[in-house]
Design goal:
- With 267 residues, the protein is of the alpha+beta class.
- It contains 8 helices and 4 strands, in the order ααααβαβααββα.
- It has a 4-stranded antiparallel beta sheet with strand order 2-1-4-3.
- A hairpin with a 4-residue loop joins β3 and β4.
- α3 (57-74) packs across α8 (211-235) and α6 packs across α7.
């Protein structure tokens, strides 16, 4: 059997030492590193000959990772033409839909002190007084309570508004007509009168706007396709037997303090 290190192997050995923050090896040190690599390969081959690589989780994970990298390289060999990309985007346009976005201003009524019912009543009473005011009116400064965050939110998605104020608040805001004051609308903070300045509907952008994102998505889809096909082909060469066991049949004790699956649900 022959073991031969190439000039590229020697370069990689030297670079590996430099990558560890060590100085570039001299000739004697490089030869010593080469001897270590040769012995590593000899030991690896001898271990494989003895079957020591079989049923070893660490080795299996490493080899599986290397095969995964190989398949990833294969997926990069044939980038799409513009026409191929356009056709693929037409079939997957829904995946790139940009969500609706709302811009709104709000007047806040705090439940602290008065309580939730009183805060809601105060907001309802203030609505007729501000109904005809523009969202930028200075008269709004004396209405409601000071809010701990922003009074104006521009270009926010329903998801973003929901994270800030709660999903019910977001749903109510996106259901309003732009250009009018509405409310009271409840959030996790209290009650609000909301002026919806604008509502941009959801849309599918043109390919030119997001071509880089579409190319990245195409590459990921191509890689997944190649990987799944390769995995299917490889699996077809094996007879796979997996016992149908319930975890409870394995006789394993749960870690101390751990609950059984589903414990506490519905209680």
């Amino acid at each position: 059997m022959r073991i031969e290190l190439t000039a590229d192997d020697m370069k990689q050995l030297a670079l590996a030492q430099v990558a560890q923050g060590l100085p570039l090896p001299d000739g004697r040190q490089l030869q010593a590193l080469a001897e270590q690599r040769v012995m590593q390969r000899i030991l690896a081959r001898e271990a494989a000959a003895f079957g020591l690589d079989r049923d070893d989780d660490v080795i299996e994970r490493r080899l599986a990772q290397k095969m995964d990298f190989l398949l990833a390289d294969l997926s990069q060999l044939n980038p799409p033409t513009r026409d191929e990309l356009a056709a693929w985007y037409a079939d997957h346009a829904a995946e790139f839909t940009q969500p609706a976005r709302a811009s709104f201003r709000h007047v806040y009524f705090s439940p602290d002190g008065l309580g939730g019912a009183a805060a809601e009543a105060a907001a309802a009473a203030a609505l007729p007084a501000i109904a005809g005011l523009p969202a930028s009116s200075p008269a709004l400064a004396g209405v409601g309570d000071r809010f701990m965050f922003q009074d104006y939110y521009g270009g926010r998605t329903a998801e973003a508004v929901g994270k800030e104020f709660g999903p019910e608040f977001a749903a109510a805001v996106f259901a309003e007509m732009p250009g009018t004051w509405a409310g009271p609308i409840r959030s996790g903070y209290g009650w609000h009168l909301v002026h919806l300045d604008s509502l941009e509907p959801a849309r599918v952008p043109a390919l030119d706007e997001i071509e880089a994102d579409v190319r990245a998505a195409w590459t990921n889809a191509r890689y997944k396709e190649i990987r799944e096909r390769a995995e299917d082909d490889m699996r077809a060469r094996y007879t796979v037997v997996i016992p149908d066991l319930d975890p409870a049949d394995l006789g394993l004790a749960a870690p101390r303090g751990a609950s059984a699956p589903g414990a506490g649900l519905g209680q």
